[in-house]
Amino acid sequence: MKRKVGLIVNPIAGMGGKVGLKGTDGAEILKKAILIGATPESPRRAIRALERLAGLEDALLFLTCPGAMGESELAPSGFDHTVIGSITPGDTTAEDTERAAREIRAAGAELLLFVGGDGTARNIYNAVGDRVPVLGIPAGVKMHSAVFGTTPRNAGELAKLFLQGKAVGTREAEVMDIDEDAFRDQRVSARLYGYLQIPFERRLVQSVKAGAVGQEDTVVRAIALDVISNMEPDWTYIVGPGTTTREVMRVLDLPNTLLGVDVVLNKSIVASDVNEGELLEIIEGRQARIVVTIIGGQGYLFGRGNQQISDRVIERVGRDNIIVIATRAKLFALNGEPMLVDTGNETVNEMLSGYVNVTTGVKEKLVYKVSN
After folding, report:
1. In this structure, which CATH number among 3.30.379.10, 3.40.1080.10, 3.40.50.10330, 3.40.5.10 belongs to the domain 3-204?
2. Least crowded by CB within 10 Å, which of 26, 33, 102, 249?
3. 3-state secondary structure of 149
């Protein structure tokens, strides 16, 4: 008898990232995202995870949702699947996700895979709690929760290990989410909603996002001074989000978008809170560098909260023109785990992998590993 696996895809997850909207919660924000060119991210991320389950076609039966909530992604995969429930095409809701999760659990799924971000994780938690193992395939913008694989590929790999009986087992993982309205207003207000049971393999699962770790003002200021002292005339500098990068803008006495991306040329502001399309236009024909820091506790350089600096932007700028900055405390808090990238483009992820210099003070650097 085939093992039953659930699959729920949030078709709008992550659409606000590249266009600089920092999420897609709410009909008006989604509408705005589409108007300025946002395209779905979650379908291809679902497919990338499913590709890692190759070889188990004869062993699995997927329980999924109609259309873009799972059926469309499974149709070309070669896996047997049963479609549960109904949705309104083009108008899926959180209630659709919660209802589907309950129905999939009731139908006997041994593992429930979902594609989305923190909001989707909350929906899954509301529906099934800790009564069935679940695993998130990352497709959102914020991604504070610890219930996701580090990348879609690794989520698929972990699901395969679990279904083959090779994973260590399950553990409780935090479901976190923030207030998106506050987030867009430059305020981070995160809270713990509960715990989900997930298959666990340390190298394949992302950590919960942590706050600042002992970031003394003098240390962050020293990092900013080093970056600024090395800025070259007529080079464009793309400054990513975060408290460490914010200090670069403060020392330059320039306005800063704490949770967005700003652009500097000759130590003057060129544009604030830009999206992917604007970045590509600004750097066309110009020499450019990216200044980026890591997400505390998780270690992500790209793919979490800074999707405006997309794979296309990174390719245009080039690996050698990426300036990574972080305090030693932030690096040590990773406990030896590598920094991570999840740009949605495997070629770019591979390009970014390896070892990089991390600026940790004035004329002070550490060499640290990047993985995907």
Report:
1. 3.40.50.10330
2. 26
3. strand
